[in-house]
Amino acid sequence: MGKRMIIEAPAKINLILDIKGKRPDGYHELETVMHQISLADRIILNPCASGIKLGINSGLVPYNESNLAYRAASVFFQKNGFKGGIEIFIEKNIPVGAGLAGGSTDAAAVLLGINEIYEYNLSEELLLEMAAELGSDVPFCVLGSSALARGRGEILTPLPSAVSLAIVLVKPDFQLSTAEVYSKFELAKVEQFPDTRAFLAAWGRGDVEDIAVNMVNVLESVSIRIHPEIAVIKERLKELGALNAVMSGSGPSVFGIFKERKGAAQAAETLRKWYSEVYLVSSYKRGDYDGKKEIIAGRP
Ligand code: C5P
Fold first, then answer.
1. Is the CB of 139 under 6 A from ligand 1?
2. pLDDT digits over 153-196, tens only?
3. CATH of the domain at 266
4. Calpha distance 175→218 (Å, rounded)
């Protein structure tokens, strides 16, 4: 039997998010840049004789078979033959229902972890296939770092780690359902679309100001209608010096990109007067989060 393993499972933000149309399968055709940040859950995996057991230090996430991390273990064992069992403990740090792929990243960590603990040695391609079955954001979480995602989110082009961004993330005290936001999306109501090519060119140059200027998320057109507070947070971040601020995924989290960490830290301090969940983070690097060893999720 393999040994116990601790895995960092980082959150993601969407630096741009465009929707090209609705697909026959009901999903939306995406063009988005996903970027892992230094806010992470920790997944502790313990091999055991049989079965899947789940523990979480949070009452906000389902504690049963519907949990995406549980489903990841279940899909892995079903597809590849059951070599044993697994105990999963999730130390939840990423806000739930926030547009930060918290559930997806836990699921990705479980796939990567079981592959390693039980020495299945599955290829990245096979892991990505299982990931796509679990959810649209899970493949990116398996791949890690930064990537352009198309299709449902599963067609991935890795991007170089051009820059380390100084980011302030605000999670307002309400949640949004991804399915609800997507179902209310209307192309005609979008005021601003991202220019993906311009964004990628800025990314290639590592030009933080140009990266920030090109950040746009078309799902804001829905989420701000449901919760106008999202627009207020964007404005506050910009007033406090952010080069630009946008919503992540289907929201409601909003993040601002700053030129320097110092300015970001000052803005975060001010924002904490109004919001209880404010995070000063940066682009994710493996092991950055808390310096723990035995980490395999996310690329360096
Ligand atoms: O794939 P996942 O289960 O994470 O998606 C959650 C919901 O988000 C889906 O049920 C769907 O309503 C919506 N979605 C979408 N188009 C995408 C990704 C998600 O419509 N590309």
1. no
2. 999 999 988 789 999 999 999 999 999 999 999 999 999 999 99
3. 3.30.70.890
4. 18
pLDDT band at 58 (very low <50, low <70, confident <90, very high): confident
Q: Does 193 share its domain with 138? A: no
Whether the CB of 135 sits within 6 Å of ligand 1: yes
Is residue 12 among the annotated active site residues?
yes
Residue 289: CB within 6 Å of ligand 1? no
Terminal CA-to-CA distance of the chain, rounded, Å? Answer: 28
Residue 10, pLDDT score: 97
Same domain, 38 and 148: yes
pLDDT at 296 (0 to 100) = 41
Integer Cα distance of 111 and 78 in angstroms: 12
Residue from 18, 22, 27, 34 whose mutation best tests the ligand 1 pocket (most atoms within 8 A of CB): 27
As a whole number of angstroms, the distance between CA 181 and CA 177 comes to: 6
